[in-house]
Design goal:
Largest sheet: 2 strands, antiparallel
CATH superfamily: Winged helix-like DNA-binding domain superfamily/Winged helix DNA-binding domain
Shape: globular
CATH architecture: Orthogonal Bundle
CATH class: Mainly Alpha
Oligomer: single chain
Number of domains: 1
Number of strands: 2
Strand content: 5-15%
Strand order of the largest sheet: 1-2
Radius of gyration: 13 Å
Helix content: 55-70%
Structural class: mainly alpha
CATH topology: Arc Repressor Mutant, subunit A
């Protein structure tokens, strides 16, 4: 999990946005529209990163048809959130 998170956040383009998405979803579930407003990002950008995170089992979604899918952290990510925090802490120290 640690290697995967490093790659998704620190080792590829868009890592900052993915980190922001994970942090937001740790607080509460969002749909793509809500998250794009919350993070002040383009809908397509958020959707792209959400699809990547979902394909790696970092986030999960409901199958709500009426208002669109709601996204939340997967159980796997919830259990390993401390690894994510550790990675962010190291990245922030490096950038100072």
């Amino acid at each position: 999990m640690k290697r995967l998170l490093w790659w998704l956040i620190a080792g590829s383009r868009g890592g900052k946005n993915r980190a922001r998405i994970i942090e937001a979803l740790y607080e509460r579930p969002y749909n793509v529209n809500q998250l794009s407003v919350e993070l002040d990002l383009d809908y397509k950008t958020v959707k792209h990163h959400m699809d990547i995170l979902k394909s790696h089992d970092i986030i999960s979604s409901s199958d709500e048809k009426r208002y669109g899918s709601m996204y939340f952290l997967s159980n796997r990510m919830e259990e390993k959130y401390y690894i994510f925090q550790e990675i962010l802490s190291k990245m922030r120290k490096k950038s100072q």
